[in-house]
Amino acid sequence: MPKFGETSRSRLDTCHPDLQRICERVITVFDFSVLEGERTLELQQKYFKEGKSKLDGVSQKSKHQSKPSNAVDIAPYPIDFNEKEKARARFYHLAGYMFMAAAQLKADGVITHELRWGGDWDSDKDFADQNFDDLPHFELA
Ligand SMILES: [Zn+2]
Fold this sequence. Notes:
Elements: H1 6-12, H2 17-26, E1 32-36, H3 41-49, E2 71-76, H4 85-107, E3 115-118, E4 134-140
Zinc ion binds next to strand 2.
């Protein structure tokens, strides 16, 4: 059974309990790494400048900037950021587990939030109507 490494665990610990519960459920069946939880303003501004985020961190704050973080970035393990179709498909696969876990945990009263994903910002299950993909990113809606 997969489990979090120390680095992933310490990053996940900076996230909202709902995100922790969801990730803890998914790691039991599918191995992934936690890339980032809480994020400083400085880092948010760096990502904005690099085009990795659409939010400047001041007038528009990222959900990573709250304490605890209302967003978590994760990637299937082993990590492969190749833009090739099958590398990207692993992120969609992981998202399926995340949404199933979130739905179950919410139905069981363990968590209270809905999940929103950077691969489907408007949550309409149409992945083609996006102009900005952030496949590792999940946040509380
Ligand atoms: Zn993110």
